[in-house]
Structure formats: structure tokens, C-alpha cells
Here is the input.
Amino acid sequence: MKRKYRQNSFANIDMTAKTVIFTGGTDGMGKEAVKKLIRMGATIMLLGRNKSKTKDVVAELNTIAKQEKAHYVYCDLASLDTVRAAAQYILEKCATIDYLINCAGANIGSRQVTKEGFEMNWTINHLGPFLLTNLLLDRIKKTPNAKIINLTSATTGWVKMRLDDLQLTKKWSLLQSYAQAKLAMIMCTRKLAKELKGTGITINALNPGFIKSNLLREGKGLDRIIGVPYMFLCAERTENGGDRILRLALSDEFENVSGKFIYEDHIKNPNPEALDNELIERIWNISREHIGIIN
Ligand SMILES: NC(=O)c1ccc[n+]([C@@H]2O[C@H](COP(=O)([O-])OP(=O)(O)OC[C@H]3O[C@@H](n4cnc5c(N)ncnc54)[C@H](OP(=O)(O)O)[C@@H]3O)[C@@H](O)[C@H]2O)c1
Here is the structure.
């Protein structure tokens, strides 16, 4: 199944004065996006959990840039302490933050719990990026027209929030754990967009499409046995995903768009639960408690 793909024309944009904070730029579509951003002249703070892999990508980016425009920041989204340390480092190094791109995500194939006691897919796909965004928010607010992009998923349309057991202690599945984390991300994107109204800062949630990547490598059993070849055969080119991130970040079309769910190339209504303000408020408050912000 080949999807229609929109060519992008942002290659000539000058990003030399822009600072981009990017998670998930060490592999998959994120890596495609950061390689193009560095060619446009951007300064990139590349957050990664794997020291040698992230440093290799930073070196590759700096070779393209022919100068030190990419910088390594250690951050494992499964560990909220490392997110706090990464944010502190970024605040020391970056006077402005023009773009925060929360691209990192994972499909952990069995129920695991983080050191802080939260389900792993919930943490990597929602709490980690939510904490990072909160910690960088004041600096982002000081940067005119800054943009935040959160990578979510089409799977958010296939689940309901399991409010009675958000940590899925009774009945866990990969789909439920991954998709409800990404759904929480859409809800918090919408809530934050309301708070940022009038500031010139935009925040949106992007489903990049079904894209060839390494996302399923931490899957288990049938999810992996069926999922990996299916992705190999049916998904779009990795570059298309990277381009969708860049299009949302850079094209005039999305200049003043905020609080939206962008499905590949278009604004689309998300799961109706992500339009339910009462539910959004509950998920927002729970998420804030989980990251240690008491309401
Ligand atoms: N591919 C798709 O069809 C698809 C569809 C919908 C949404 N998405 C979303 O798109 C985003 C990009 O994924 P992708 O498909 O390009 O997958 P990918 O190739 O697996 O890349 C995922 C990136 O996230 C990083 N990451 C994973 N766990 C992390 C952690 N604990 N701490 C810090 N970084 C971590 C990875 O780092 P390492 O290099 O260290 O592994 C890698 O850079 C994800 O948010 C994913 O959920 C993908």
C-alpha cells in the first residue's frame, strides 16, 4: 500500500540562527530530519540514550555542517532523572529554543516498570517528553514564534484511556500501553496549546504515517514476527516521515496552527477522547503528578 506523499520545498530555508532541541534523532525518521536541519544551518541539541550511537550521529552531523553545530545531550526518556539533567544542561547552553521536537518513541514489547515506578511505554512515549517540555517551557516562551512538535500515532484512534488502571497492572498489551501514552500526549498537546494561546508559540501532535524504521525492534512475539516484515513491505520511506516533521516545523501552511492533530499532511480530528475537556484535565493532572509537579 503506497500512500501519496507531498514533496516539500523547505530545503533552502536558512536555519543558521535557530536552535533545535531534538529527541529521537539517532535513528529512523528523526535521523532523516536532523540531517536536513543541519544542512539548513540549524544548531541541534541531540538528546540520546545511547552514548556512542548519539555521539556518532553528532559527529556525522558536524561533518555535514563542517563546523560544530550539533551537540550531544545524554537523555534516557525511561529515566525522568536523566530528563531533568538534560533539561538543566540545555538551559545552561541555549539562550533560546526555537524548536522542541519530541520525536523519540518506543514500542517496548512486554510490561516493564521504570525506576520511578511507571509503566515503560507510558514513560518513554508520554511522561519523558511531557517533563522535558515542561522544564524547557519558560525558555521556549522567551523565544519568539517557537514551535513544539510531539510525535504521536494513528494507533491513538484505536484505544480508550484505561482510567481505572492507567499503569495497566491488570491487563497489559503493547497496543494499549503504546497508544494510550500517545493519546495522553495528544491530550496534553491540546491543553498546553490553550495555555500558550496569544504567546505566538505553537504546539502540535503529529502522526507521521506508517514509516519504515526501527520502531518495532523492542517488540516481542507475534507483534515482532508479523510487524517487522509487514513494516518492511508496506511502510513508506523513512525520509517521508522526516519530511513530515520538517514540513510541520517549517512550512508556512502550519505557521499559526496550534493544538492540532496532524495526520501525515493534514489536520484531522483526533480520537474523540482527546476532545473531551474533562478527560484532558484528568490526564493533564495525573501526568503532572507523575512528573512531580503538584497541582
Ligand atoms: N514508524 C512509524 O510507522 C511510526 C508511526 C507513528 C508514530 N511513530 C513515532 O515516530 C517517532 C519516531 O520513531 P521511528 O519510527 O523513527 O522509530 P525508531 O527508528 O525506532 O527511532 C526511535 C528513536 O527514539 C529513540 N528512543 C527510543 N527510546 C528512547 C529512550 N528511552 N530515550 C531516548 N530516546 C529513545 C531511539 O533512540 P536509539 O537510537 O537509542 O534507539 C531513536 O532515536 C516515535 O515517536 C514513534 O512512536 C512512528
